[in-house]
Amino acid sequence: RMASASSLVDLCFAAVADELLYDENDSLISVIFELPWELLNGLFMRLTPLALQKLPVRCPFETSSSKECGYDCHQSSRKRKRYNLLDGRWKAHCIARWPIDFLLKQAAKRSNKSGNLEELIDDWQQMYWETHLQDCVDAVAETALRPSYSGSIGEIKIPDDMLKFIGCKNRLTELRPDYLNFSYHCQQFSSYS
């Protein structure tokens, strides 16, 4: 059986997702938010956590309609949809990476309450990066505690499987070297813990 060819739209989504991950000047972000809703929705569905992280909560640009700022603005139903979609993507990324019972325990510990996921977790992006950073700390501690290790904790490399979860699969050799270090993950995601 022959594999089906990717559509042009799928190839474009993949190119945009890659560009988001590797573009250092974030020039693409303002263009992304000018896409029609259907295309924006399709793009969001394909973004990895690291690419999704690059999207600002508040867009630092002027939209064509007015000087509105951000898709978390509650005046616009289109912007509310974008925010809800992003939160839904973060939830999907959490559930894909960690078992639901683990997430429940983490959320209950964090809030000192019990309940279902929706009651306990109101910010899925927060939950994702907080749990990712804790996984990184656990992995780095194993290396740092070895008697033979004599380097800096910040220089310890994050395990490949964790990097693949955040969206670096098959791209490890193309990443900037600091993406691989524990110090990068602390700098980028410590605000979530």
Task: Please bin the fraction of helical residues.
Answer: 55-70%
Give the H and E element order. Answer: HHHHHHHHHH
Give the total of domains. Answer: 2
Give me the count of strands. Answer: 0
Mean pLDDT: 78
Strand content: under 5%
Instruction: Give the CA-CA distance, first to last residue.
Output: 48 Å
- Cα-based radius of gyration, to the nearest Å: 18 Å
Uncertain runs with pLDDT below 50, 5 residues or more?
A: 58-80
Protein structure class: mainly alpha
Number of helices: 10
Largest sheet: none
User: What gross morphology would you assign?
Assistant: globular
Task: Describe the SSE topology.
Elements (H helix, E strand, L loop, with lengths): L7 H15 L6 H4 L4 H10 L2 H5 L23 H21 L2 H12 L5 H4 L3 H21 L15 H9 L13 H8 L4
Helix pairs in contact: 3-5, 5-8, 8-10
